[in-house]
Amino acid sequence: MSKNTRNLSARQQGDKALFAELSKTAQQGGSLSAEQLHVLARERRISVATLLGTSSFYDFLNTFKHGKQGYVCNGTSCLMAGKRNAAEQSLLRHCSRQEIGEATCLGHCFHGGAYWFGEQTFDIKSDPQNISKQPRIPFYNAAQQSLFTDSISDLASFYQDSLLDPDIILKKLADSRLRGRGGAGFHFADKLAACAAAPAGQKVIVCNADEGDPGAFSDRYLLEVQPQRVLAGMLAAAHGVGADSAYLYIRAEYPYALQCMREAITAFEQTPAYATSGVQFYIIRGAGAYICGEETALLNSIEGLRPEVRTRPPYPTQYGLYGQPTVLSNVETFAAVPWILQHGGMAFASIGTTQSTGTKLLSLDHSFKRPGVHEVELGVPLQQVINEYGGGFHSAVKAIQIGGPLGCVVPLNNVTDLSLDFESFAQQGFQLGHAGMIGIPQDFPMIDFLRHLFSFMAHESCGKCVPCRLGTRKGSDLLMAATKDTPIDRETFDDLLDALEFGSLCGLGGGLPLPVRNILQYFNAELTDYFRQGTGR
Ligand SMILES: Cc1cc2nc3c(=O)[nH]c(=O)nc-3n(C[C@H](O)[C@H](O)[C@H](O)COP(=O)(O)O)c2cc1C
Ligand code: SF4
What we know:
Helix content: 40-55%
Number of helices: 24
Bound molecules: flavin mononucleotide, iron/sulfur cluster
Number of strands: 16
Structural class: alpha/beta
Distance between the termini: 41 Å
Shape: globular
Largest sheet: 4 strands, mixed
């Protein structure tokens, strides 16, 4: 997109932005109708084709999906629980089969089996007619020093007491060595420093609350239970770099989180501290596209473009939202900031390990005896997390998916080799990611797990680069067609994984091979009939 066009589209921000309007219109009838699309195109003076280019990308804006009233969760944890049919049966009490769509993970993995109806999400045991409040996500603190136990009840006082000189904010955050909690583990202070050093002008803060990874619901917990803490972290970051706008991109699948954050912003806007802060908050509701969690796709999404990944450099800290220097970070990263400002960066750095400082929120799914969000100190043995904090498993589990579909798959036998930190996982050929955990039952076939992974990625690939656009589809087709009589040529499959890893533009195509290779390595015996070894090409 040219800089001029980008500058023009920046004129209509917040509620008036194209994406916000598409989302609002679609909300009324479950995705957009063709008529609504034409009306919007006329009003906005853009071609229907351009608008369709954007809207057709999203599950909840796509005209082919118009009229859906309820959605069954098709996330990994619900698949492992075998509860999709039960969720559909629950929905059929409220709408017809044609009105039921699918949503990718509603963040109810602690229940196993969930659906979305009437702007609320439910687990299969609850009945919308008898529920007035969203059920709370269980929270357990296992860290000696918890960052998230107390809520910040008064954001205005926090703002007045804790927001010091920008240099002091940046110094405290540098001392903390806080690493981003969204998966890649990038040092937060480095991002702030780069944005602060960018030429003066409008700068932007963006909180990535897209939490699309099936099995993760810790961001959802923070948004619903600690909204002021998230806003306080964003305000501090804005103050540190001199930003005057702060965006929260929250996935549509979290209607209650959207409501909680809206209420928290409205409450803050009514205080005198809001005026002095000079920061304008915007909430952007996602529309059902996993790739929008990727930072540059997210920026394009807010701008109303088809959310394809941008090439880097330039990085968002140089050229981010509407081309302005932008700090984009995860919910939990921002939520850690207030504690650091109140207690000091060194105090934070004394928790955890030298390179992975602080605590981490873990999402443990329904396969654990104590499912929910657990706050743990980074560096604790994984064994302790599973058996002590999580209480072990309800029934036999053979592996754990950790960090979502782009994280890793750890066989139960390898658990004793790992501690919960970025380095330990990387050294053993795994990846911590956001560290949410899903138990893979003993009797769940690994070939089906591979099929699930590939078909999810084929559906969610943004299509910008060839290795991922074609590779995820090809991999999915190969796996779907594989039988013991017609196995996949292993050499071809390995080539496909190499092409994805080395040729992809972003972490979706590039990250998929790692969990797939974990499975191929550790569950070779179970998969051997589905792969034919080395016949060459
Ligand atoms: C396919 C894909 C999906 C992602 N989804 C999320 C997400 O839902 N939430 C998130 O914070 N980061 C997600 N990320 C990582 C972001 O691109 C980015 O690194 C992160 O938001 C930066 O925040 P942090 O530094 O606080 O971790 C995703 C990355 C990829 C490649
Ligand atoms: S790797 Fe996949 S999701 Fe990422 S840019 Fe390429 S096509 Fe898009």
